[in-house]
Structures are given as structure tokens and as C-alpha cells.
Amino acid sequence: MQLDGNSHIIYAEEEAAGTRLLMMEGLACFSHVDADTPYAEVEVMKMCMPLLSPASGAIHFKMSEGQAMQAGQLIARLDLDDPSAVRKTEPFHGSFPVLGPPTAISGKVHQRCAASLNAARMILAGYEHNIDEVVQNLLNCLDSPNSLSFNGKNALQFWQPAYPKILKMNWNQNLRSLS
After folding, report:
1. For a tag on the chain, would you pick the N or C end, based on fewer CB atoms within 10 A?
2. How large is the average pLDDT for residues 19-40?
3. Structure pTM?
4. What whole-number distance in Å separates Cα of residue 172 and Cα of residue 68?
5. In a 3-state reduction of DSSP, which class is residue 41?
């Protein structure tokens, strides 16, 4: 339907399913839009979401009102008032950290602790990871009596030649009682 030189869509009772474009009232092709103002609405399943202009400029619509849209389809082009105001992406020229060989994580406490500690180090280095999960895994490792047993055996193996024989026997008995 045309009214006062503007085209308007009249919907029937049975509408086609899909995503539809609705232009903002009073906005035509080559109109000027300000930054963060709506220039159109997208209707999906009776819900309307406004599309905001990212910057000020003249808008050139590539689709007509009421037209069904496909994902990734170009809706409009914007000739910017100030093209220098838009920050352009730049390629990454840095280097990524050297990664070690992959490690298998089993149900053993010391391997879970090492993996959780490594994940915590990666979080502190700025990588994204589930912080709550890492903290919970670290706490579980610290709460486990097997953690003390394993770390104690490692310490004993390292310092074993320096310990007196009676101390080694007492240490081994205590470790066996924890296991």
C-alpha cells in the first residue's frame, strides 16, 4: 500500500515464518542517521529488535521493508560522516607462548593438581578459563589426603639419602596409614 508517497506493508492473517525487516518511520534511502539511533527493526516470531546505527552518516538500504531476510544478508550500507572515527582492526604481529607437550590427566591426585595449577597460571597470564572450576579443582586437590601422601613420597625420594634410617621408617609408616 502507498500512502503519501511511502510504501507500507499490510500483513494478512497468515504470515510467512522467518525474519522480516521493518524500516523506522520517516527514514528513507539516503537519509541521515545519528550514531546509536535505530534505523530499522528486525521481526522474528512476533518479537521486534531495533538495529542501531554504529556511527553517524547517510544510510543506503539494500533491502526493502517487509522482505524476508537470510542470515548474513546485507541490510544497508552507511556512508560515514567521519570515516576516521572508526577504529580499524589490525593484524596480530606478536608471538604466542611456547606450549609444552600435551599431558594426559588421569584420576591421580598429583596429575589433577598439576593440571589445575597450570590452568591457574594460564588464567593469571590472561587466558580465558572457567575460574570457578579451576579453584574448585585446586581446593579438592588440597583437601585430598592422597595429595599429602604423594608429595611426601616425592620429598622422601629426593631427600632420602640425607634422612636417618629411623626417620625414614617413621615417615613410611605414616604414609602407609594415610593411603
Report:
1. N
2. 81
3. 0.40
4. 75
5. strand
